[in-house]
Amino acid sequence: MIAVWTGSARSPETSVPRRSVSLRRLAGAISCSRRSPVALLEGYHPDAVSHDSRIDAYLATLPADQRQALQRLRAQIARLAPEAVETISYGMPAFRLHGRGLVWYAGWKAHCSIYPLTDSFMEANAKALKGYRRTKGSLHFTPDSPLPEDLVERLVQERLADVESGGQ
């Protein structure tokens, strides 16, 4: 088992600066020999997600309900953007396309989020977004109130168009 402390730059036990460990090295140390829990989700195809061990490790730290909600979101994004590559960016699971950020998602204390959320998307989908909290660039949801699949599809399609056109 690997424990990663993600607090400030100082270890809580020793109060001295902690040694930096690359995510690539950490990912190599995590066993991926067993089938991902994502595979247990309804409608999931084992080849739909690349099984990036860093993302599996991130999701493993979340409560079960958030983990399941984000695994479903992960599988849906992978299905909608099969050319995209999974990665960790800004400390969150993300999908990149042609070297550019496509979609990020994360689990927080009281909600899950998907990023980015553009003004044009908010305006075009105002009715569907009613009831979901959001910030300037993110959409918040909970496992009890997941995002509708068609809304996620529209968000990913808009992002695909932005990335393909060279926009943000």
The global form is globular
Output the radius of gyration: 17 Å
Helix-strand pattern: HHHEEEEHHEH
User: What is the number of E strands?
Assistant: 5
Helix content: 25-40%
The secondary-structure class comes to alpha+beta
What's the number of domains? 1
Mean residue pLDDT: 77
Query: Quick one: CATH class?
Result: Alpha Beta
CATH topology type: Aspartate Aminotransferase, domain 1
Uncertain residue ranges: 1-48
Folded structure, characterized:
- The chain has 168 residues and is α+β, with helices and mostly antiparallel strands.
- It has one domain (23-165): Aspartate Aminotransferase, domain 1 (Alpha-Beta Complex).
- Helix content is 35%, strand content 15%.
- The protein contains six helices and five strands.
- It has helices spanning 23-29, 53-60, 64-80, 119-124, 126-129, 149-165, and strands spanning 85-89, 92-97, 100-107, 112-115, 139-141.
- A five-stranded antiparallel beta sheet has the order 1-2-3-4-5.
- A hairpin with a 2-residue loop joins strand 1 and strand 2.
- Helix 3 (64-80) crosses helix 6 (149-165).
- The longest helix is centred in the middle third of the chain and has 17 residues, at 64-80.
- The chain is globular.
- The termini are far apart.
- Mean pLDDT is 77; it is low at 1-48.
